[in-house]
Amino acid sequence: MTTASEPRHLKAKGLKRGVPRPAKALCSDCGLCDTHYIAYVKDACAFLHQQIAELEARAHSRRRDLDNEDELYFGVHQEMMAARKIEPIAGAQWTGIVSTIACQMLETGLVEGVVCVQNTPEDRFGPMPVIARTPEEVLAAKVNKPTLSPNLSILEQIAQSGMKRLLAIGVGCQIQALRAVEKELGLEKLYVLGTPCVDNVTRDGLQKFLETTSRSPETVVHYEFMQDFRVHFKHEDGSAETVPFFGLKTNKLKDVFAPSCMSCFDYVNSLADLVVGYMGAPFGWQWLVVRNDTGREMLNLVQDQIETQAVMSKGDRKAAVQQSIPAYDKGVTLPMWAAQLMGVVIERIGPKGLEYARFSIDSHFTRNYLYTQRNYPDKLAAHVPDFAQRIVEQYDLPE
Ligand code: FAD
Ligand code: SF4
Ligand code: SF4
């Protein structure tokens, strides 16, 4: 029995899988609504209540400085760098910095558990969120499961386990909901290790993407949209396959991305303590954004296992972004020979380092702004954060 002074969630019950969620078509299946923390969904859901600025102030003790271009694009931060593991983890998405930090946090006793995503026994890309308690369980979660993943579905297990110190790994929409309910979790300390995220898909959508894009969809074990403007696939037999972005069958892929991800503006995971991606770094390196002292504490644990270099920025993205807006809008696909050629030219003269990251943010924000404006006009004003509004305003958008 609950009493009036007990938290609201103790009276609530999570929804069964398959039952529509409060955000309806916009739900990114972050997992919150699987748990009794659904009691806070109206406030916590990234698609019902966009509150990045308020949560940034809470998580990082200050808001992002919109007049500083690096903060406008990459969020509140103390430092950015390019880094890679001196001895990469075989089979990790990049060099395994995320898994290494999580293992180290468990081994040093900084945390008792790590929220991460393993795969289901029957499907290498089927997401299975867990709270890992050993480095082996963390390593079993390495590599992206490139689909929507209900990471927060494990939230009820935290209170049940009695854990007080936790690391959560996740993408922006998961972390927004997590930050919103953080104070209800009964933790002494929550660490948040985020990755950037864009263009995510349901498991069915992933299948369509693989079948439309790869020569051998069934054998793909890993893929990434890389800074050389190509999608790199790795297959079971170790062979590699690359497909230029400009050769993607955009007419067929237009509807493949989940509606949540077509209206998402938290590409850089604004609310994590530390972000580990790749897009602001030179090819082959990872890109690290240290947002606050907690993020620095996490990174310090692995300093002796990584090499680093300063971030760099080269080129000018603006014309390429402006040209890509109508091309995407009309679903134009170039013939493969032209796509290859364009890929080579853009790679030589195109944006690099932080300018590549800005290119990717601008292209996705303009596309997502148009999508939201057309499909959810009533939500637009409240859903687009101020930083995204400023970024989008740099371009001429079609009606
Ligand atoms: P690893 O050591 O291999 O660890 C990967 C971690 O990711 C694991 O801990 C696992 O729990 C977690 N994870 C796997 N799948 C998911 C999921 N679906 N949801 C939440 N967590 C998950 N970086 C960019 O710079 N630009 C991008 O556009 C970009 N898009 C991404 C899209 C998705 C869906 C994901 C999951 C990541 C994306 N990243 C992006 C991050 C990048 O691909 C790497 O994940 C990151 O650089 C870490 O690499 P690593 O080798 O250190 O990770
Ligand atoms: Fe619930 Fe998360 Fe879906 Fe929002 S995105 S409706 S919080 S499961
Ligand atoms: Fe969530 Fe945005 Fe990634 Fe979609 S693109 S899974 S909404 S963080």
Mean pLDDT: 93
Lateral arrangement of strands in the main beta sheet: 3-2-4-5-9-10-1-11
The shape, in one word, is globular
Count the helices. How many? 16
Kindly list the characteristics that best describe this protein:
single chain, alpha+beta, 16 helices, 13 strands, 35% helix, binds flavin-adenine dinucleotide, binds iron/sulfur cluster
Fold and architecture overview:
This protein is an alpha+beta fold. It has 16 helices and 13 strands. The strands form 3 sheets. Strands 3-2-4-5-9-10-1-11 form an 8-stranded mixed β-sheet. A 3-stranded antiparallel β-sheet has the order 6-7-8. Helix 7 links the parallel strand 4 and strand 5. Helix 12 packs parallel to helix 14. The longest helix has 22 residues. The protein is globular. 45% of the residues are buried. One iron/sulfur cluster (SF4) binds next to helix 1 and helix 7.
